[in-house]
Write a structure and sequence with these properties.
Blueprint: H1 4-9, H2 12-29, E1 38-41, E2 47-49, H3 50-66, E3 71-74, E4 87-95, H4 97-101, E5 108-115, E6 118-125, E7 132-136, E8 155-159, H5 164-180, E9 183-185, H6 190-199, E10 204-210, H7 212-224, E11 228-231, E12 248-253, H8 256-266
Parallel strand pairs: 3-4, 8-9, 8-10
Antiparallel strand pairs: 1-2, 4-5, 5-6, 6-7, 10-12, 11-12
């Protein structure tokens, strides 16, 4: 069995590389903040910006140079290589693309490293405010006092998929949460939302039918900070690379009590 020290230090070189890649990408795209340089439309509600491609290219070049033997999965046209390498970098080059293009300072660069099925580190970097959030494999630990917010006092982020059905369901969930919680936000940047849950800045997040690529970095942050992430079955979500095969729905919160209450409100028919 590995010691705590070994677990804490084992991935420091890779963590430094991920931080460096995220910072370089943030520096490269910062001048485009607030510019709607659309390079593609991804359905009715989502877009690709030049900044997405610049950030992705910057990160790929960094990892290809430092870890040429590792695989890379990234949002913009690089999602077919999940199974090809044991060590796999999973990259969301610009979480919150629409926010970034409209000059709304709620967006991030998100990076996760998987060793086979297991996540071993994640970085979420805010390119506008220069906030950085990171976690590495090892025992979960609280970075602040336990988060014991009551459901009626909670500020909750909500993210659903971009489908028409997802938007309808999202409005239903938002209505229920608004009747029971202090505030519901829908900022459509799940990695940063989850990073804020990991610090207690947000009390919880409800996610329906997310892509693993969009949420794995943030889920890892919440779990490593000692928070609770529940799947629709009511059990703690086991974050594994194979989850990429299907959409992921979950509730993340600072406490198990809040997570369970929000799960019951948001997904009453889940059978948990």
């Amino acid at each position: 069995m590995k010691s705590v020290a070994t677990l804490t230090n084992q991935w420091q070189q890779e963590l430094s590389a991920a931080l460096s890649a995220a910072r370089q990408a943030a520096h490269a795209i910062r001048p485009d903040f607030g510019k709607r340089s659309v390079t593609a439309r991804k359905g009715r509600y989502d877009i690709q910006l030049r900044a997405d491609l610049v950030a992705q290219r910057t990160i790929i070049q960094h990892f290809s140079h430092h870890y040429p033997e590792h695989g890379i999965v990234s949002e913009e046209g690089m999602q077919d290589t999940w199974e090809l390498n044991r060590m796999t970098w999973v990259v969301d080059p610009l979480d919150g693309t629409n926010n970034f293009g409209y000059g709304i300072a709620h967006c991030a660069v998100a990076i996760t490293l998987f060793d086979a099925e297991t996540p071993v580190l994640s970085v979420v970097f805010d390119p506008v405010v220069n906030r950085e959030f990171m976690a590495v494999a090892g025992p979960a630990r609280r970075v602040s006092a336990p988060f014991s917010t009551a459901v009626g006092e909670a500020t909750v982020a909500l993210v659903t998929d971009y489908s028409e059905e997802g938007r309808v369901t999202g409005r239903r969930i938002e209505e229920v949460l608004s009747q029971n919680c202090k505030r519901v936000t829908t900022m459509w940047a799940p990695a940063l939302d989850l990073a804020l849950v990991s610090t207690g800045a947000l009390d919880a997040m409800v996610s329906r039918n997310a892509s693993l690529l969009d949420v794995c970095a943030g889920i890892f942050l919440v779990q490593k900070a000692g928070g609770c992430v529940l799947g629709l079955d009511g059990a703690p979500l086991r974050l594994e690379k194979s989850l990429h095969h299907a959409p992921v729905s979950f509730v993340a919160a600072g406490s198990k009590e809040l997570a369970r209450k929000l799960l019951g409100l948001s997904f009453p028919g889940s059978g948990w």
